[in-house]
Specification:
7-stranded mixed beta sheet; 5-stranded parallel beta sheet; elongated
């Protein structure tokens, strides 16, 4: 099978790109294995016109909208290999699908590194979160914890004071630097340095943090700073350069990497990690890809 564009990843960035490319009558294959970063969340925030919409509803609506564009094909599979083959890219998928594409858009996203805390999976996306911009607003006036080893939790807790007043930092058995301690004191933020034993609550709603020693800490929510990593190594195997944060380096306008014909959009760039931005980056990359194809065909300069 031969395509104009192979899109790897069916999150907001990949879907946004597929929509624009479909409207450009481009032959597109979008491959996605259904592991979007925000599927554990109950609501998408910061997305104008869809504020509070669940990620699953957003995905269903997006797929329904894309179904009208017959030049766009979708497969529920993982792309395992992409290599340059002459003037095009050859690809292989886990389900056995193979083909070539003139351009590749990597919208593979990130994977959050959840803290190793007993019970955290129950609360993740409901009352345990990784993004203040996505979920901080809902916790104004509520008691919240900032979790992170060393100074990471302290730095996060200080930033959280803009969103909520009752913040306690949990460093989970690790030391916080004297400089960070002074900043915590300046902002009236308490520190619990004891190792965390578990998170407890019901129906996804956090009620308290239990420590191996010392009293329990009643909390309605927890934000963590433990990092994240690329969900796919395709950018690495293709030779794309990454910055110090692990994000793929791209042209700020087109989204094209240093590898001609390879573009990225969404969280894979590790810039602003919001659904609204991912959709926009997907659209920008799609326009850049379509212009490149027009130039190839002698239809524009």
């Amino acid at each position: 099978m031969t395509f104009d564009v192979l899109i790897v990843g069916g999150g907001p960035a990949g879907l946004g790109a597929a929509l624009i490319l479909g409207r450009c009558h481009r032959k597109v294959l979008l491959c996605d294995e259904g592991r979007q970063r925000n599927l554990s969340s109950h609501a998408i925030h910061g997305l104008l016109g869809r504020e509070g919409r669940s990620p699953s509803d957003f995905l269903d609506e997006a797929l329904e909208e894309l179904s009208r564009y017959k030049s766009v094909s979708m497969r529920g599979t993982r792309v395992t290999e992409v290599i340059r083959g002459g003037e095009a890219f050859e690809f292989v998928c886990a389900d056995g699908t193979t083909g070539t594409a003139s351009n590749v858009l990597l919208a593979t996203g990130l994977v959050d590194e959840l803290p190793e805390l007993a019970g955290i999976e129950t609360f993740y996306g409901v009352s345990v979160h990784h993004c203040l911009y996505c979920d901080g607003f809902e916790y104004a006036g509520k008691p919240v914890a900032a979790y992170g080893k060393g100074d990471k939790g302290a730095d996060l807790g200080i930033m959280m004071k803009h969103w909520m007043s009752d913040v306690v930092v949990c460093s989970d058995g690790t030391e916080v630097s004297p400089q960070a301690m002074r900043r915590l004191e300046q902002h009236g933020i308490a520190l619990r340095s004891e190792p965390v034993q578990s998170l407890e609550g019901a129906n996804g709603e956090l009620a308290k943090i239990v420590f191996r020693s010392g009293p329990d800490l009643p909390r309605a929510g927890l934000f963590f700073s433990t990092g994240c990593h690329q969900a796919s190594d395709l950018s690495k195997t293709l030779g794309c350069k990454r910055n110090e944060k692990g994000g793929v380096i791209t042209d700020p306008v087109t989204g094209e990497t240093g590898v001609p014909g390879v573009y990225v959009a969404g969280d894979v760039s590790r810039d602003v990690l919001l659904v609204a931005v991912a959709i926009a980056e997907g659209a920008e990359a799609a326009v850049a890809i379509n212009k490149a194809l027009l130039r190839r065909d002698g239809l524009c300069e």
